[in-house]
Design a protein that fits this description.
Helix content is 45%, strand content 28%. It contains two helices and four strands, in the order H-H-E-E-E-E.
Amino acid sequence: MRQQSRSQFALVLLLVAGIWAITGTTYANDADTKGKVEMAAAAKVTIDQAVKTASEKVPGTIIEAELEKKHHKFVWEVEVVTADKKVMEVHIDADTGAVIDVEEEQVKPKKSPKMR
């Protein structure tokens, strides 16, 4: 009888842990989505306008556009691959549409495997 109680307790504990894990993840995703929605609503410049501005500034293929908060401002970061295979980041003020700066994305060195 005592063994059955322990088994039931373990089962309940696993069930509670599973529910907590699922709802915790859902809450985190909801908060992340809510933050993105709020940022998009605050930006006066749309993603389409930011991409157009970036294309005019740096010719090439747009591979990514992301709205970020930097230095207490909303900024569109648009990545463009140029004809000479460089990835350039065009930062655009999400309030005014002005190009803040253009910089080459730095390639991060790969970590070498650890020697034993």
